[in-house]
C-alpha cells in the first residue's frame, strides 16, 4: 500500500484523541486514498511502464538525437566510450579538436572528470534542458558517466571596426559588434574595476537572447537598476532580435515621438555614461548598447565633445541648438510671413518674393509640403542605399529635381532655399529617432501656421515645450538639466566647462558618490 493505514490512524488518534468521530472519518478517508493510489499504479499497462523506464535510462546522446531529429547540423561522435555532441553550425572544429579530441585520444581513464578536458570554460551538465541550452549556445557536450559542456563557439561575428553611425575625428575608433562578449570586453577594457557589475538575463521564450545590465555599484542609483530589472523580467515575448526591439518594450513604443533611451555603437560613450551613474544594456546579436536614463540634452550634444577644447566645443553646442530651432520652425516661419505678416518683410525683399512666386500656381503651404515630402524621400533613399553610392544618388536627385521644379514653375526658388537650409541643419543630428521627432513637430508647426499665422507658430512652440516637459526617462525628467536646473549636468552637456573643473556627478543620477575628481 502507498500509506500505512494503522500508523496513520494511531498518529491521528494521538493528535485528536478528544474526538473519536473525527478520528473515524479521517481513518476512512485515508483508506480510500490508499486504494486509489494502489489501483492507479498497479493498473497501468506494463508496456507503458517499460517505455517510461527505457526513456529514463536512455543515454544523453540518444535523447539529444531525438530532440534534434530535424537538425542536420547535430554531430555525435564516440571516442573511448565517450560521446562528443555538438552543433556543427555554431562550433569551431579547431577548438573541438584542440580542447577535446586530442585529450580524449591520449587519455583512456575509465571515469570522466573536468580536469581531463583542456577548455577555458567548462560546465557540468545536470539535465537534458541544460544540455540543450549549452548546445544552442555553441558548447560541445562530453558525456560518459558524467556530462560536461565545453565552450567551443565558432567565430560568427564581425571583427571590431570603426563607428559608422557615430563617426568622429577625435576619440577612439572602435565600435560594438554583434558579440555580447566582445562588447562587454570593450567596456571592461576602459573600466578596469570590480565595481563594474554585469547582471545577465535571458529575454525571449524562443530566441532566449542574453541581455546584460551594466552599472557601477558604487555610483549607480539602486532604485533605477531594480526598475530596469523589473521591466526586463516582465517582458513576455517570443523573440528579441536586436537592441531596438528591447528599447521599444522598455520605453514604450508609442509613448512619445522623442527617444527616451539612447542607442550607441561607441564603447567610450557607454563607459562615460557608466561613470556618470547611468545604466548600460547590451544584448547578444546587436551592435548597439542602450543607455538609460537619457535626456533631450544628450541627443543634441554627443559625448565626443569631451575630446576637444571647451572654448571650441561651446561654439559648436550653441550652433547645434540654433540648428534645432531652424530645422523645426524655419518653414513655418517663412509660411507665416509670406501669407499673414507681409508687413514684417522689407519692401524690396517682399517684391522679390512676389516676383518669384508669380509663376507658381500652388499656394505656399502646398508648395512647402510638396518640397518637404520630396526631401524626406531623398533622405530615406540615401539612408537605405549602399554607402558606396547612396549620398551621390540623393545629391543628384536634389539638384535635378530642384532645378526642374523651378524651371517648370512648380515651386519658387526661395522655397527651395528654405527647405534646403531646413534639411542641412537637421543633418547635424545623427539619431534617427530624434530626426523623425523633429519632422513631426515641423509638420505640426506648418499646419498650425497655415491657419493662424505667427500665432500658430507660437502655439507649435508651446506644444513642443509642454510635450518635452511631460516626458520622463525611468522616472527622471526628460528636460533635465534645464528643468529642473542642475548646473553640474548643464556644464557637461549644453555648455562645457574645462575638464579640470568637472569634479562632481549629478545628484539626479547618483545618490551616494558625487565626487569624481579630487583637487589638483
Could you characterize what this model shows?
By secondary structure, the chain is α+β, with helices and mostly antiparallel strands. It is 50% helix and 11% strand. It is built from 19 helices and 12 strands. The strands form 3 sheets. Strands 1-2-4-5-3 form a 5-stranded antiparallel β-sheet, sandwiched between helices. The chain has a 5-stranded antiparallel β-sheet with strand order 6-7-9-10-8, sandwiched between helices. Strand 4 (139-143) and strand 5 (147-151) form a beta hairpin. Helix 7 crosses helix 10 (267-276) and helix 12 (310-339) packs across helix 18 (454-469). The longest helix is centred in the middle third of the chain and has 30 residues, at 310-339. The protein is elongated and about 100 Å long. The chain starts with a helix and ends in a 27-residue tail after the last helix. Mean pLDDT is 83; it is low at 1-57.
Amino acid at each position: 500500500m502507498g500509506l500505512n493505514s494503522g500508523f496513520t490512524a494511531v498518529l491521528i488518534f494521538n493528535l485528536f484523541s478528544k474526538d473519536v468521530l473525527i478520528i473515524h472519518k479521517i481513518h476512512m478517508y485515508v483508506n480510500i486514498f490508499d486504494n486509489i493510489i494502489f489501483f492507479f499504479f498497479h493498473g497501468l499497462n506494463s508496456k507503458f511502464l517499460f517505455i517510461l523506464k527505457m526513456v529514463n535510462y536512455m543515454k544523453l546522446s540518444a535523447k539529444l538525437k531525438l530532440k534534434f531529429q530535424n537538425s542536420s547540423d547535430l554531430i555525435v561522435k564516440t571516442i573511448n566510450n565517450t560521446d562528443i555532441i555538438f552543433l556543427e553550425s555554431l562550433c569551431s572544429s579547431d577548438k573541438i579538436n584542440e580542447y577535446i579530441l586530442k585529450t580524449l585520444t591520449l587519455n583512456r581513464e575509465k571515469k570522466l572528470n573536468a580536469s581531463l578536458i583542456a577548455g577555458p570554460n567548462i560546465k557540468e551538465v545536470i539535465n537534458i534542458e541544460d544540455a540543450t541550452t549549452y548546445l544552442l549556445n555553441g558548447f560541445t557536450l562530453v558525456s560518459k558517466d558524467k556530462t560536461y559542456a565545453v565552450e567551443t563557439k565558432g567565430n560568427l561575428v564581425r571583427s571590431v571596426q570603426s563607428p559608422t553611425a557615430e563617426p568622429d575625428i577625435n576619440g577612439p575608433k572602435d565600435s560594438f559588434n554583434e558579440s555580447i562578449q566582445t562588447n562587454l570586453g570593450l567596456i571592461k577594457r576602459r573600466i578596469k574595476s570590480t565595481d563594474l557589475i554585469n547582471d545577465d538575463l535571458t529575454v525571449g521564450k524562443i530566441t532566449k537572447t542574453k541581455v546584460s545590465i551594466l552599472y557601477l555599484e558604487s555610483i549607480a542609483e539602486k532604485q533605477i537598476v531594480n526598475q530596469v530589472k523589473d521591466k526586463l523580467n516582465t517582458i513576455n515575448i517570443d523573440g528579441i532580435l536586436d537592441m531596438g526591439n528591447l528599447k521599444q518594450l522598455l520605453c514604450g513604443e508609442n509613448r512619445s515621438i522623442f527617444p527616451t533611451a539612447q542607442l550607441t555603437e561607441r564603447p567610450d560613450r557607454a563607459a562615460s555614461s557608466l561613470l556618470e551613474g547611468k545604466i548600460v544594456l547590451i544584448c547578444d546579436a546587436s551592435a548597439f548598447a542602450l543607455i538609460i536614463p537619457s535626456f533631450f540634452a544628450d541627443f543634441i550634444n554627443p559625448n565626443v565633445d569631451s575630446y576637444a577644447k571647451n572654448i571650441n566645443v561651446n561654439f559648436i553646442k550653441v550652433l547645434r541648438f540654433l540648428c534645432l530651432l531652424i530645422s523645426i520652425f524655419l518653414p513655418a516661419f517663412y509660411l507665416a510671413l509670406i501669407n499673414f505678416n507681409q508687413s514684417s518683410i522689407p519692401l524690396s525683399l517682399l517684391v522679390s518674393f512676389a516676383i518669384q512666386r508669380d509663376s507658381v500656381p500652388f499656394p505656399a503651404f502646398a508648395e512647402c509640403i510638396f518640397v518637404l515630402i520630396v526631401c524626406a524621400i531623398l533622405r530615406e533613399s540615401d539612408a537605405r542605399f549602399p554607402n558606396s553610392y547612396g549620398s551621390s544618388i540623393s545629391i543628384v536627385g536634389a539638384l535635378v529635381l530642384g532645378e526642374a521644379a523651378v524651371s517648370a514653375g512648380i515651386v519658387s526658388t526661395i522655397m527651395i532655399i528654405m527647405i534646403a537650409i531646413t534639411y542641412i541643419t537637421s543633418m547635424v543630428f545623427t539619431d534617427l529617432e530624434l530626426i523623425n521627432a523633429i519632422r513631426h513637430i515641423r509638420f505640426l508647426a506648418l499646419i498650425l501656421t497655415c491657419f493662424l499665422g505667427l500665432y500658430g507658430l507660437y502655439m507649435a512652440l508651446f506644444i513642443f515645450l509642454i510635450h518635452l516637459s511631460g516626458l520622463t526617462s525611468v522616472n527622471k525628467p526628460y528636460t533635465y538639466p534645464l528643468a529642473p536646473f542642475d548646473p553640474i549636468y548643464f556644464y557637461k552637456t549644453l555648455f562645457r566647462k574645462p575638464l579640470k573643473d568637472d569634479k562632481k556627478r549629478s545628484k539626479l543620477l547618483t545618490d551616494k558618490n558625487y565626487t569624481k575628481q579630487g583637487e589638483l
